[in-house]
Amino acid sequence: MTSGQRATSPLATLAFAVSGLGIGLLLHVTRASRGFALFVPPLSLPLTLTAVAIAVLVMAVILRRRVTRDTGGNVDPFAAVRILAGARASQFAGGLFAGFGVGLLVPALLRTVVPAASAWGPMACVAGAGLVLLIAGVIAERLCRVPPGDGDAHDGPGDGSPESGPVDQPAFRDSAR
């Protein structure tokens, strides 16, 4: 992430978590009003969320090592942007699934007769795995930052600052100047 980019807003992540909470509550209330049993998510869901969290973290660590080490290899900017996009998407999806798991879990545990652990256990696992994915996304986004000094090599008018126009940037220079 360059100095001009901002980190993902915690309010956006919170909005996804609240949306997931609402979806989980709505699903629970809808199923209960129709006389259906509790919705128990499959155990493959938290396992998949955890696998995605691990994959995002591994890719971000590899990118960070390439950026900070002086190995002579270039960093593919498109791959870096994809990893950053994956990190941000992980934050949003993690918030959504954590909220969804909590939205399913809270009404189930507030019943007069608490369901068996085989019913509320997967709900708690989804909430936990969503939280793990959210945290992994935050860490991966921080790992995608450009170290200080890399983007500040020159302070001339062609440094991409908002004050410099397209004419001042090397890609748009007119050969007549």
TrEMBL record:
Segments carrying the region annotation (Disordered) are: 149-177
The record's annotation in Pfam families points to: DUF3180
User: Would the keyword Membrane be found if you checked this record's keyword annotation?
Assistant: yes
Tell me which UniProt keywords the record has, alphabetically. Answer: Membrane, Transmembrane, Transmembrane helix
> Where do transmembrane segments lie in this chain?
12-31, 43-63, 92-114, 120-140
Does the record bear Electron transport in its keywords?
no
Q: Which InterPro entries match?
A: DUF3180
- Output the superkingdom of the source species: Bacteria
The protein's name in its UniProt record: DUF3180 domain-containing protein
Origin organism lineage: Bacteria, Bacillati, Actinomycetota, Actinomycetes, Micrococcales
